[in-house]
Amino acid sequence: MNGKYTIWLFVSAIMIVPVASFSVVKWCEDSFQRLPVIERAEKNIGNFSLLNQFGEPVTNDAMKNKIVVADFFFTHCLAICPKMTKSLSVVQKAVNSDAAVLITSFSIDPERDSVARLKDYASHFNVTGQWFLLTGEKKTIYRLARNSFMVTATDGDGGANDFIHSEKLVLVDKSGPAPRFL
């Protein structure tokens, strides 16, 4: 009787383990979505030179061979921007010492978001390390938002009446843009 029980248990295990494994894999596939990938022929972030919260120039060269998490925000936003900045704070803590990861927050209202204003905002949200809050010419920032990071499908020229506001975080891998939206 003991031998029959052992054989039955062994046969049951052989049948149950694959079915259970398949069920777990299927559940994971159904539960988690892949990030959408935007395919692009151009594989470079457009050229730019902007100022960070310390008044230091930052160019597109800072993003080469890095994983970049980017967002487009403005400091006087009371709706989604503070939530996004808090989410980026969590990312910052998770990758704090990883020099291969760069977080960039581009101000979409550079007329109001001066270097001093960005520095205050950075202090309020404990922005440190490899995280730049960037400001500069509005046309440059809006060109980057539309053409490099693809946060909006609308046309515009970065002029006085042009406004971009997105609740998306953009992930760019080391090979360059084919942005993945978070």
Features:
single chain; 182 residues; alpha/beta; two-stranded antiparallel ribbon; disordered C terminus
Summarize the structure.
The protein contains four helices and seven strands, in the order αβββαβαβαββ. The chain has 182 residues and is of the alpha/beta class. It has two domains: 1-32; 49-181, Glutaredoxin, CATH 3.40.30.
Describe the structure.
The protein is of the alpha/beta class. The chain folds into two domains: 1-32; 49-181, Glutaredoxin. 36% of the residues lie in helices and 19% in strands. The protein is built from four helices and seven strands; from the N terminus they run H-E-E-E-H-E-H-E-H-E-E. The protein has helices spanning 2-31, 80-94, 115-124, 138-148; strands at residues 49-51, 57-59, 67-73, 101-107, 131-134, 170-173, 176-181. The strands form two sheets. Strands 5-4-3-6-7 form a five-stranded mixed beta sheet, sandwiched between helices. Strand 3 (67-73), helix 2 and strand 4 (101-107) form a beta-alpha-beta unit. The longest helix is centred in the N-terminal third of the chain and has 30 residues, at 2-31. The chain is elongated, with a radius of gyration of 23 Å.
